[in-house]
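As a warm-up, study this chain.
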Amino acid sequence: MTSPLNDALAADGILSRRLHPALIGRIDAAVKRGELVPLFPGTYAPARSFHSLVAALADWDPNAVLMAASAARLSWWPNLDDDLVRAATTRRPVRRVPGTKLSLIPIPAELVAERGGLRIQHPAASTLDLAREIGPAAIDEALRRRAVSLGELRDAFELMTWRTGNPQLAAWLRASRDGAWSHLERDAHALLHAARITGWKANYEVRARGRLHFIDVAFPGAKLAVELDGWKHHGDRRSFIDDRQRDNRLRLAGWTPLHFTAESLPTMVPTVRRMLAILADAA
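Now compare it with the structure written out below.
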């Protein structure tokens, strides 16, 4: 491509007939040569990608709001592997744009944020819309990354009460009320509630031997640490070693760690009760 086109691409990430009227002839010639592919009407790039489509969308409809996985990837979950550009637009293109999923869903102004010149859903709203697609793992991830609080999720939910799938979302939010960061943690919390065991906190911050740790379920008064290990927990030798060192630091700080997996979770309640009794007798 000619230097003026390359210069415009370097500056804007795309070529736009609106932004570069003096280059329209060169753009058309580059399209004919196969050097550029059309994106949104009047916008082009050497290749169709997530980022080129996002830039083209902002040029074609400056009022569009990136949502769900796209908003998450651009704000609080940068390594999310999802290239489909999802957006609420104020207009419809005359033809389908590959690599995009567009809707005319109105997004309340309170749930729109500006980021790098783009309009994107607030993290709480994008979390909820992402959960509609991939399930409660989206809520877990947003809470784990501290991108949102449960309060923000509930507030966003109240502004989206007319959306489909809300009964299921409400159930997931209730299940995450204690701050669960995984499906296994939600199941553990449900068992503890059902057994009427109190005095515990989820993802409790503890500094042990100079290191900050988050205990999955902590009983601070008894210094009992309940750790819930998912199937990915020991993916390699390094993580296995780190886990043992973590347990040692907690023990040296006066904590008693207990570990449970999905398979051993049914034994958690009686084991926790017994250990609380042992620790109380020893106090």
